[in-house]
Write a structure and sequence with these properties.
The protein is of the alpha+beta class. The chain is built from eight helices and eleven strands.
Length: 247
């Protein structure tokens, strides 16, 4: 797996408050997020997320406000305590709500009660990604630069029923032998044990690959929190963030 290498212009220390360090490392290493920076502050724009780091900067603050003023969709703002926190909370346009992320870490000493074979769950391989069923999965490996990047540094499973992809369990932000879980099951096949089964198989493969695996979800996502706890994950930290919506 690729390893994060620091350099003289490294921005990682500016985001030390972020509990998902694997995500920051991956974004910086793969140069996926748009980065605005000054000498001691920066903002990473990644999809709907805006991640502020370093000391407060009027220049970055104005870029943040311009981003929000031009938005018609929900944005998620991450900021360290102190001046950045006060600045974000005093934004006067739009609706700002306090939210919280739960980050779980899997204890690799806990054996996963894994069924290594299932008629509906398939490992995602190069051949499978060349099939007609793979479009949904290709759209979900957005934290990788390419299919080849995913095949080399990531791994995953897919749930296929009656020829249709009905779920997946994918590694995301893979770097430094760490990754997070991205899991989804079609609503018609939930509460049947597929999510738990995929997670257990995913963890089994992850252990054989020497991966440290994380699970992040919002505090109010009760099913996700319960599944993490039921499959051997332990809550390691919490992070407050802001959900901003235009009015």
């Amino acid at each position: 797996m690729i390893q994060y290498i620091k350099n003289t212009t490294d921005l990682l220390p500016l985001f030390s408050y972020q509990i998902s360090q694997y995500m920051i490392k991956s974004l910086l290493f793969r140069k996926q997020g748009k980065v605005d920076k000054t000498e001691n502050s920066a903002m990473i724009t990644w999809g709907p997320s805006l991640l502020l780091g370093g000391v407060f900067s009027d220049e970055i603050g104005m870029i943040l406000k311009e981003q929000l003023q031009n938005q018609k969709n929900t944005r998620f703002i991450y900021a360290p305590d102190g001046e950045w926190k006060s600045y974000v909370e005093n934004i006067t346009f739009g609706k700002l709500e306090n939210k919280q992320i739960h980050l779980y870490k899997h204890n690799n000493l806990v054996e996963s009660n894994c069924l290594t074979e299932n008629l509906f769950i398939f490992e995602i391989t190069k051949d499978w990604l060349q099939s007609d069923q793979s479009n949904l999965i290709k759209n979900e490996i957005y934290s990788y630069l390419s299919v080849d990047d995913f095949l080399q540094n990531g791994y995953g499973l897919t749930l296929v029923i009656d020829g249709k992809v009905c779920g997946y369990c994918l590694s995301e932000y893979s770097i430094d032998n760490e990754c997070a879980i991205n899991i989804w099951v079609d609503e018609h096949y939930r509460r049947l044990g597929y999510a738990k089964m995929m997670t257990q198989i995913f963890l089994h493969h992850g252990k054989s690959k020497g991966r440290q695996i994380y699970w992040g979800c919002t505090s109010d996502n009760i099913p996700s929190n319960k599944l993490a706890q039921a499959t051997g994950f332990t809550l390691s930290s919490r992070l407050k963030y802001y959900e901003w919506q235009p009015i």
